[in-house]
Design brief:
By secondary structure, the chain is an all-alpha fold. It is built from 15 helices and no strands.
Length: 302
């Protein structure tokens, strides 16, 4: 009997040691499992989000009759290519797309770099008035963009840049939100001891930023660039004020030219709007996962 107890004891001890790992695996499987109501809510949210774009395509492929018909038509027609060809005949749409790509890409790249530099200075460099200057930057976020239109136009006019693409690029090269975004990421991801070791090796502030700081926050800079790209692409007010020549119009101004003085051709407008949205969809399709990874990377490191 004692021998049987001795033989069973090691097995019970092994079961006791293996039980926590088994429990952890079961808890992990429960955490990773998503119930069907969550999937149902996600599907509903996706359908609600995609429906405006789909209905835009329906109107662009059928015409204005898709809106006025009762009940409203919810399936596409066969006139999409005819309507888009009319869009290209009415305005220089391809040139407008190219202008929007140039402006949006330039502003996104330069803004990401400048905001990363400013965020590095506010997060890791010690200089007089650092907190006061950062507070001023944050206070500029409370000022409506419409209040800066007249000063910006006066500056652009003084530089003789009215009706040029640089008139759109220059005012958007830095943003208070971008500086705040990069400052928060750099303050939590860049190690002070690593910076001190780099200074001992003879590196200056620029070398520390470019070789150590910027590679660390590159995902955050990529997210900021993508957000900036989308904002500049969809901007209408400032390009509408400073651009006069049709060959310099951005895509949003080109869409405005599709409307007549007193009437709106819904088929033309929806066709142009759908084609203006496609580049953004393509960009998000290829880099959306990287954008989410950059956001989550900052969230977990914070």
């Amino acid at each position: 009997m004692s021998r049987m107890i001795d033989e069973a004891a090691p097995a019970s001890r092994e079961d006791h040691l293996d039980r926590p790992q088994h429990d952890r695996r079961r808890r992990g499987s429960r955490v990773g499992k998503v119930s069907w109501p969550v999937y149902a809510l996600l599907i509903i949210a996706v359908l609600i989000s995609v429906f405006p774009l789909y209905y835009m395509f329906v109107i662009a492929s059928v015409g204005a009759s898709a809106v006025t018909s009762i009940p409203p038509r919810l399936y596409p027609g066969f006139d999409f290519f005819d309507i888009t060809a009319k869009v290209f005949e009415t305005v220089p749409f391809l040139q407008s797309l190219l202008n929007s790509v140039i402006v949006s890409l330039a502003v996104a790249v330069i803004t990401s770099l400048l905001c990363a530099l400013a965020g590095f200075a506010f997060a890791k460099l010690q200089f007089p008035g650092r907190n006061t200057l950062f507070l001023i930057v944050l206070l500029t976020m409370t000022v409506p963009a419409q209040l800066s239109v007249i000063p910006q136009y006066l500056i652009i006019s003084w530089l003789d840049w009215v009706d040029t693409l640089q008139a759109i690029i220059l005012p958007g090269l830095a943003s208070a939100f971008g500086i705040f975004w990069m400052r928060q990421h750099l303050s939590t991801t860049l190690n002070d001891e690593l910076m001190a070791a780099a200074r001992i090796d003879g590196a200056n502030s620029w070398q520390i930023f470019w070789r150590i700081g910027f590679p660390v926050v590159r995902p955050a800079a990529f997210v900021l660039g993508l957000i900036t790209f989308t904002g500049v692409w969809n901007d209408f007010m400032w390009p509408f004020i400073v651009l006069k020549s049709p060959e310099l119009f951005t895509v949003q101004i080109a869409l405005k030219q599709l409307q007549a003085n007193r009437t709106i051709d819904l088929a033309l407008t929806m066709g142009g709007s759908f084609m203006a949205t496609l580049p953004l969809l393509i960009v998000f399709f290829f880099v959306g996962r990287r954008m989410v990874a950059g956001i989550m990377d900052g969230a977990f490191k914070g």
